[in-house]
Amino acid sequence: MKFALAQINPTVGDLEGNVEKIRRAIVNAEQARADCVLFPEMAVSGYPCRDLLDKPEFIKANSSMVQEVIEQTRGPAVLLGHFDESSRGAGKRLVNCATLFENGKVLARHEKILLPAYDVFDELRYFQPGDAPAVVTLNGLRIGITICEDIWNVPGFYDRDCYARHPVKELTTAGIDCLVNLSASPYRKGRGKRRLELGRSIVKETGTPFLLVNQVGGNDDLLFDGHSFALDSDGTVLAQSPGFKEDLLLVDTAQPSGEIAHWADDSNEEIFKALTLGVRDYLHKCGYKGAVIGLSGGIDSSVVAVLAAHALGAENVFGISMPSGYTADASKQDASTLAHNLRIKFETIPILPLFDQYKETLRPLFGNEPEDVTEENIQARIRGNLLMAVSNKRGSMVLSTGNKSEMSVGYCTLYGDMAGGLSVLADVLKTRVYQLARWINRDTEVIPQRVLDRPPTAELRPDQTDQDSLPPYDVLDAILEGYVEQDLSQDEIVSLGFDTELVHAITAKVDNNEYKRNQSAPGLKISGKAFGSGRRIPIAQRFRKNSI
């Protein structure tokens, strides 16, 4: 049987636009003589819809569009992921489901059984779980239908079962010739290969071919990498889509044959593609064409500028250097060189006159008190104000440039360098930023080498470096990875060989800066635990075990 896996990039809430993508994919699949087209989870509405699902008018419009697609579609059979109203008299109003139809006739419907409620997921908030998995016979083939999380509970894949039910096992018991999965599975580093490992575990369990189609694109903080694939009954890859772009993947389970695209082997290449997609989709789906970036001559703003130029086109990126009296000539030169290399628009706005005016205005309040972090923050906030002014005037979005290491310990200024509509590197540790910069420069020097070689500095006071206030980034990032991403205790981190006092000091900074992160721009998620919707720590709380 010939399947077409339609790896599409829907926009949440754009029902008409998403349906147009669906219709085009069906036409292309028919031209390729496919017997059945598979679409991702909630392809009509986009995923995740969050509290749009509480709006009656949205529910009604979605149902109307789904019905229209079913009634008007001719050609190959279609398995479409969408949400719908539950037919039960009790429980949640909606179900996350998939409908199989052909030439206006509904052949089968599956309601998602396993509803995730961890990390960024909150499906139990909206949906009623399905009762039983669906099996349908199409062209003589018994096909088992699952939706995303339904497959993430294969016995033996984890140390501990995530759910009491095992939809894949239930389908195997019912008897199937093929298993398909419609996913909207968010990206994290290495996730595509992890899904492939899961697929092979499923094939081992079922003894049948397995096909997974995944959503691609950025929706707010979440990135969806695609990486759809099909496996033969022995776990051999029959077909696989590229990551981070739309694709119509054709696979014939009878031959067996299909198209196999290259997947990134280098994690830096993968992350670069993910962040580029995230920047492009966030701005475009929010109605923006251009970006404004404060170019400090440092590593973070340099990497963000490269990502923006790749995502939006150099002509749509505006870099602004805002030197103060503490800004080194090297920083000014490197910012200008980077802009020239990328061919983006570039201007310099010195902030020293404004900084002096601020200090003069505040002198009656501050008197002769020595300068401290207050004056450092004033500089950052002046820059934030200037960037936002340019953003307003040009209709472009400011991209903030702080990385995860800085955000973790509060080494950032509210309403200053945190100003912006999107925090591009909010889930990228500083050591990874350097790795990305070296990957960017792998063939030719895009980011001036001096940016990678100089000690990182905020340049907010004389001769300042980041290591005046922080440990070396390789040490800091290892501690943060344990505490933030792996939820290790302080004692567990110390047992890995880190100094006790340092661990307590760093984890205290993480705990004490929750209020800052709560006010930051949305960040693009690339790790297993990012600041944002997947990490919900109270701000006003006093659990500080061993903190000093």
Sequence-ordered SSE layout with sheet pairings:
Blueprint: E1 2-7, H1 15-31, E2 36-38, H2 56-72, E3 77-85, E4 94-102, E5 105-111, E6 134-138, E7 141-147, H3 167-174, E8 178-183, H4 191-206, E9 210-214, E10 216-219, E11 222-225, E12 229-231, E13 237-240, E14 247-252, E15 257-258, H5 267-285, E16 291-294, H6 299-312, E17 317-321, H7 329-342, E18 345-348, H8 352-366, H9 373-394, E19 397-400, H10 404-409, E20 422-423, H11 430-440, H12 449-453, H13 473-485, H14 490-494, H15 500-512, H16 514-517
Parallel strand pairs: 1-2, 2-3, 7-8, 8-9, 16-17, 16-19, 17-18, 19-20
Antiparallel strand pairs: 1-14, 3-4, 4-5, 6-7, 9-12, 10-11, 12-13, 14-15
Verbal overview:
The chain folds into 2 domains: 2-255, Carbon-nitrogen hydrolase (Nitrilase/N-carbamoyl-D-aminoacid amidohydrolase); 270-466, Rossmann fold, CATH 3.40.50.620. The radius of gyration is 26 Å and the shape is elongated. It is 36% helix and 18% strand. The protein contains 16 helices and 20 strands. The chain has 548 residues and is an alpha/beta fold. The strands form 4 sheets. Strands 5-4-3-2-1-14-15 form a 7-stranded mixed beta sheet, covered by helices on one side. α8 (352-366) crosses α9.
